[in-house]
Amino acid sequence: MVTRRSGILLHPSSLPGRYGVGELGPAAEEWLEFLAAAEQSVWQMLPLNPVGAEGCPYQSPATLAGSPLYVSVDRLRDDGLLDAADLAAEPELPGERVDYPAALAVKRRLLARAHAAFTPDADYRAFCRDQAGWLDDYARFMVLRDRHGGPWTEWPAPLARRDPAALARLDESAAGDLDRYRFEQYLFARHFGAVRARAAALGVELIGDIAMFPGVDSVETWSRPDLFDLDADGRPAAVAGFPPDEFSHEGQVWGNALYRWDRMAAEDFAWWVARVRRMTEWYDMVRLDHFRGFLRYWAVPVPGRAGDGSWRDGPGLALFQRLRKDLGDVTLLAEDLGPASAEVQQLRVDAGIPGMRLVQFAFGGDENQHLPHHHPVDCVAYPGTHDNDTTLGWWAERSADERSRVERYLGGIPDGICWSMARAVFGSVAYLAVLPVQDLLELGSEARLNVPGRSDGNWTWRLPPRALSPGLEFRLRRLTETYGRDRRAAGRRPSGFTG
């Protein structure tokens, strides 16, 4: 028997709070309490790694670290690491949108004060020891960034090429700064751990996200340049992107580093095993972004336009066989959107990983796989995701003919398009249904989180204070119970696949 479940997509950066960005503190726990009261069993979020330019969580300089932006100031105060004077010295930042530079500046000052007030204890020393495999290089990378800027290829040659003597001198001369970066990761681990423990107590599981590629200027490319498509000086000959299609006529140049899959395979994919293992420490389910890239990915030459790129082969099933062998029955989800490909779907099925279906994509033809009556059980159904417009914004852009098709399929929209689409998603046979929080609140395009290919204005939307009303909780709970997705029915893993 397959258990039906449901949840809401909300990135922690979007939570309300006074320090410019959402945090892993009281607002996160209040959000979990809302989910539990509304009979939701899943909270889905985006990557929690340190963000890249303009706050993008998919352009991270460190794939195993957590973003210090999400460390909770309230928890630091409660632990005695900050006092009222520390907090009063900081401005209250606007709550409507995330201002990443301002939020990061405030958080850096507060974390520096917290570090000065912290006395290392056995728990901290155990964390540093247990996580040293990635934590030490992360701290070095961040200290060197502070000292020399970026990219790392422009650092003094002994540091760029990781000369052991140069690193030893750094460890000695920068001991305090290195410890501060380890301390920030310790705080992230504690605060996220508290949120995860509260989620488990409430019966809510967490879905996290793994970006397909790291940033070119990242601790990953610096510490293991041999595993990436880089020249002898650490510079990329090609970067990740996507070819021109109906959604982007010029294609997209993401700019991320590309893998040397042959070298990863020669090491039994140990780098990827370590990465997924790390994410299972954070999440109950792990979504693999850009799943088609594991079969074939688009490489854009540097310099060059997206249309100048070419397809290259990914690792295919061998990677997932290794992950299963080393990690066991870890729960993976595949972002398998984009142009339909029988090969991509076959890889997903062979790997035993559920895919995704988006009802916003469903009305381009009668046999469209995104129509709810075509959904398989082993998939996650959404109206749209963080890369789509909100359903209300999407609806505003539909032609009269498409609106007619949508209304005919949905049997009318007496409650408005957002809740009518939500009924279609929850009524699907998909074992998991997820709504973006913006659709729950019936918000328009002004609340969209990301427009792919846009260089600014993304990742900044925040949940308005007091938006989670008792009436909204009741309405979501009734919808969930109507379609048998309430948490009382969510006690077993789905069967029929190994994801």
TrEMBL record:
InterPro entries on file: GH (IPR017853), Glyco_hydro_77 (IPR003385)
What keyword terms does UniProt attach to this protein? Carbohydrate metabolism, Glycosyltransferase, Transferase
Give the GO molecular function terms: 4-alpha-glucanotransferase activity
Enzyme Commission (EC) number = 2.4.1.25
| Enzyme class (EC, first level) | transferase
Catalysed reaction, written as an equation: Transfers a segment of a (1->4)-alpha-D-glucan to a new position in an acceptor, which may be glucose or a (1->4)-alpha-D-glucan
Q: Does the keyword Endoplasmic reticulum apply?
A: no
Q: Which family does it belong to?
A: Belongs to the disproportionating enzyme family.
Instruction: Supply the name of the protein.
Output: 4-alpha-glucanotransferase
Q: What lineage does the source organism belong to?
A: Bacteria, Bacillati, Actinomycetota, Actinomycetes, Micromonosporales
